[in-house]
Amino acid sequence: MKNQTVLSTSTGNQNNQIAVMSMETAKEKAPAIFAPGPHSRLSKNYKFISSLELIDHLDKQGWGLVNAKQSSSKNANPLYTLYGTHIMHFAHNDLYMKDNRGGIEGRPQIVVINNANGDRPLQLEAGIFRLVCSNGLVIKTTDFGSMKERHIKHNQDEINAIIDQKVVDIEKAVININRWISRPMTSKEQFAFATEALALRLSGDRQPEQYELMGILEPKRKEDAPNDLWHIFNRVQENLTKGGFELNGRTAREIKNPMADFDMNQSLWSIAQKYEDAIVVA
């Protein structure tokens, strides 16, 4: 029987515990999480959403903070260091994806992008963290639902309620992954996918070279060798964001800016979604 990914709930999953980030590490990685309120430049209409309160709210439901990032800035202005945009990833110890052999393929995540300086809207997304390749995959689909609003529409309690609904809806992610695993990709489709994906890192209208396409389609481990949509997506995603392939005659660098990485993941997901939608059901 072909392996199929399913969402599992388990108690006492001692061998695969999530690594919850300590508040000390969170403060080091993303100091703006600890903003006590909005920056003084903001108007009275701005509704401050406390990241610390979000962490506590999710923790009470079993969703621990597993990663936090904030763009580094040469500017020491507190507007950016203590109130700036930061990304938080949450996972649940007893929610994970596994194949029929009992191996864990990945975990659902909730991703929150927040700030207290008015630079960008509050954003909530659902995601899948693949344990096989240890990279964050932020997923934007209508099945999940998402939210991106300016800080003048929702207060803390309303944001908590939206998160609660996302916790309920997140299991729908598995439907997508199941379909992707069962969607074989021909060589022609693989190169078409890689061409569109590589365009995200090319300037202008330059067409990719054959060696560049081969580079981003190359699996880095045997687990990603299958030629289905899910594994092709993950090969391309990892290569494009982590670098290491040949691009413009040089070794491509890793995308280190967290927002650029986030946008890249969303764009790649949208490209892959078109191939899922093209599945013909007999």
Précis, in short:
The protein has helices at 23-29, 51-59, 78-81, 156-169, 173-181, 187-198, 210-217, 229-242, 258-277; strands at 6-9, 63-70, 86-92, 95-98, 104-114, 122-130, 135-139, 147-149, 246-247, 250-251. With 282 residues, the chain is of the alpha+beta class.
Q: Major beta sheet, specifics? A: 8 strands, antiparallel
Instruction: Tell me the β content.
Output: 15-25%
- Per DSSP E runs of 2 or more residues, the count of β-strands stands at 10
Number of structural units classed as domains: 2
**What structural class results from the helix and strand content?**
alpha+beta
| Helix share, percent | 25-40%
Query: What is the molecular shape?
Result: globular
Distance between the termini: 19 Å
Give the radius of gyration. 20 Å
Number of helices: 9
Report mean pLDDT, rounded to a whole number: 81
Order of helices and strands: EHHEHEEEEEEHHHHHEEH
Low-confidence stretches: 1-14
Q: Would you spell out the secondary-structure blueprint of this structure?
A:
Blueprint: E1 6-9, H1 23-29, H2 51-59, E2 63-70, H3 78-81, E3 86-92, E4 95-98, E5 104-114, E6 122-130, E7 135-139, E8 147-149, H4 156-169, H5 173-181, H6 187-198, H7 210-217, H8 229-242, E9 246-247, E10 250-251, H9 258-277
Antiparallel strand pairs: 1-4, 2-3, 3-5, 4-5, 5-6, 6-7, 6-8, 9-10
Helix pairs in contact: 2-4, 6-7, 6-8, 8-9
